[in-house]
Amino acid sequence: MAHDHHHHGESARDYFVEQLLTIFVVGALGAVGVLMYRDGKLDLILAPSFRLPVLVGGIAVLVVVAVRAVAVWQEAGQTHAHDHGPQHHGHHHHEHGPDCQHGHPVHLHAHDHPHEHGPECDHDHDHGHAHADDRVHAHHDHDHSHDDHGHSHDLAWVFARMMVLFFPVALYLIGVPNAGFSADRIAKMLGNDQALNVSIDNVATGEGSVLSFNDLNDAAYDESKREALGGKVGILVGRFDRIGDKEFRLYRLKMTCCAADTVPLKVRILTRTAVTGFNSGEWVRVKGEVRFVQQPGSTQYLPVIAVADLADIQRTPALNEYE
């Protein structure tokens, strides 16, 4: 916000130092928001619905910072002109014309008044002029100490505040965030699932359509969706996690708002023969028949993909771990 008063001495210096630091740090915050969106780093910490608002907010902050920078630059110029501008002293000169017919009582002025009287000036003068020592219009000495207007800032506090605001920028500069959850953290989220030990026969084959973890997990709790998806051939891409020789699970992560509320989405994969050659955490593509199997001792269903041929399990390039 622009100020409509003048700054003097150290107060002006402190004021402009604070303004410049604020412009720099807030501008850096806006730039980080834009760069994180461009670099895809927001994908690691925010759900898709919140990423565009971060970009828009970053651009808006940069615009406000640019406007404020121009205002401070103009204010600095005005302050410089005020400090070095000319000083004006008023001296009043009265010149009386030839028809001057006014009477002069005692003139009490704070300034020198040389009078020039015309030949026809018919007026009485009481020349008891009170001069500088007896001025009625006395000039009051002004105490300019109040001109600080509260801008005698403690720069130590200003720098401390800027360091706090700069902390997110510093994290970005050192490359944070640079990855998702660690393997140990993901293992804790996945938990220990028991093997289903279900035999699979008469597995459907075909081209298949791409499936999502969300759709399969939602269908596990909805009978109509289970009927719609059950028996179809589908393709699913996720990260590999072994449970047994003929059983593993694919998983991806789901983020509702931010990384703090992340939960894993899991689908069980069943095969006729032992699966080898895959490491935990690898990205694989699986094609098979969609089924829903009740968990042992529970009424809850699990989404399952039954694979007819091990050739339908292939490594694939990594995707975003969040679906």
Question: What features would you describe in this structure?
Answer:
InterPro entries: DUF1980_C. Pfam families: DUF1980_C. The chain crosses the membrane at residues 20-38, 50-71, 155-175. Residues 242-315 form the DUF1980 domain. It comes from Urbifossiella limnaea. By secondary structure, the protein is of the alpha/beta class. It has 2 domains: 9-83 and 149-173, no CATH class; 183-315, OB fold (Dihydrolipoamide Acetyltransferase, E2P). 34% of the residues lie in helices and 18% in strands. It has helices spanning 9-39, 48-84, 155-173, 183-190, 213-219, 223-229, and strands at 94-95, 115-116, 209-210, 233-244, 247-254, 263-271, 283-294, 301-307, 313-315. The protein has a 5-stranded mixed barrel with strand order 4-5-6-8-7. A two-stranded parallel sheet has the order 1-2. The longest helix has 37 residues, at 48-84. The two termini are 43 Å apart. The relative contact order is 0.12.
